[in-house]
Design brief:
Layout: E1 2-6, E2 10-17, E3 22-29, E4 33-36, E5 40-45, E6 51-53, E7 58-61, E8 66-69, E9 75-82, E10 87-91, E11 97-101, E12 106-107, E13 115-117, E14 121-124, E15 131-135, E16 141-145, E17 147-148, H1 149-185
Parallel strand pairs: 1-11
Antiparallel strand pairs: 1-2, 2-9, 3-4, 3-8, 5-6, 5-9, 7-8, 10-16, 11-15, 12-17, 13-16, 14-15
């Protein structure tokens, strides 16, 4: 199981660890290559509530991933990672349910402005924050591209403006053609 809470410039992740001794964190870069995930504020919580902080954990960074050597299993490992824009991705590294909590006033319902992968997700909307849920995602990574509600309103206003302009231009063109046709087929007055 894992939970991701998205904020403006970062996200917080919590993975529920069952039988792993090491987890590898990465992001999918261009042309499907793995790059190490930048992480801060790493913590491991034992089932009894004891917390081990980043300076007590073994964290290794390679060309392809950032690895956290876990002190034991089971437990929860949490961290913060930077992000930018209106997209988010995270590796699927444990089995179970995954939840991504999008920022306030975010949406994914207009496919022109959003994308979610894998597509076997469900949504809930408690307290004005959209939650995306996956039951055992069948992919190596989750990817969410979302938009703010105001973005859809701006798009609607732009489409209305373009549509209105097109109608007015068509009307003007039709009236001009009608005037030209009327003048062209009228006989010249006699001299």
């Amino acid at each position: 199981n894992a939970i991701f809470h998205l904020e403006k410039n970062q996200y917080q992740a919590v993975y529920f660890i069952e039988n792993e001794s090491k987890i590898e964190l990465y992001r999918i870069h261009r042309i499907n290559t793995k790059k190490p995930l930048d992480i801060t504020n790493v913590q491991f919580r034992y089932p009894n509530g004891t917390i081990i902080f980043e300076d007590e954990l073994s964290i290794e960074r390679s060309r392809f991933s950032t690895s956290i050597i876990l002190p034991s299993s089971p437990g929860k490992v949490g961290f913060t990672s930077p992000r930018s824009g209106k997209s988010f991705q995270a590796p699927v590294i444990v089995t179970g349910n995954y939840t991504a909590i999008l920022p306030n006033n975010s949406d994914i319902s207009i496919s022109l402005l959003s994308k979610v992968s894998p597509s076997n997700y469900t949504t809930t909307l408690p307290s004005n924050q959209l939650h995306l849920h996956w039951n055992d995602p069948y992919s190596d990574a989750l990817y969410v591209q979302y938009y703010l509600v105001r973005d859809s309103q701006l798009l609607a206003a732009l489409l209305i403006l373009c549509g209105t302009s097109l109608i007015l231009y068509s009307l003007f063109f039709f009236l001009q053609m009608k005037r030209i046709a009327k003048n062209k087929f009228q006989p010249d007055p006699p001299l």
